[in-house]
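Kindly review this protein for my students:
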Amino acid sequence: MKIYLPEARQNQDQVSSYFYEGKIPDSFGIDSSQQGQLQVKADIRISGDKVFLEGTLNADFTAVCSRCLKVFTRHLDVDFNETFNLYEGIPPKESPAELALKAANELTIYGDNFYLDEYLRQVFLLAQGYRSLCRDDCQGICPMCGADLNQGRCGCVRDEEIDPRLKVLKDFFPGS
C-alpha cells in the first residue's frame, strides 16, 4: 500500500482515507500455505512534519496449530494508531550511531511516497502472537504415538521417567 504524500499534504490537517482489500502480500513473509485475505482501512492526517496514521487491519488466513498440527482458519482484527516524522528530501548525513538512535526512537518517512507495507507487516505479525492455537484448550498430540488428544485419550502408558538431576524440581509443583 503506497500513499503519495504531496497529494495528502494539500489537505493539511484534514483526514484522508485509504482502503485496501485483497490477498495478503508476499512481502508479509508468511509461507504460501497461510495465504488469505487482508483488508486495511487507514486514515491519514498530516500536520506540519508529522503524519498521523490510524486504522484497522482485518485478516483471514490459514494457520497450523502449534499443539495438534491441524490446519485451521484464523481471523485477526487489529486497530493501529501511529505517528511518523516526515522529513523533506533525502536523509541527512548523520553518523551511524545517530541514525541508529533516531531509527530506534522515531518512525520516519523520507521522500514523497509513504509505503505502508512494512509497518502493516509488523502489525500483522505482532497480532498473531508467538503461537497459533486452533482453540485455547487444545490438548495437542501424544508424544508417544502422535494421536490427537482433542479426540480423546490414546491409551499410551506414560512412564514418568524423570531425569534424576531434575527430580528435585518436582517437589516445587505439588500435584504435577
Notes: The longest strand covers residues 71-87.
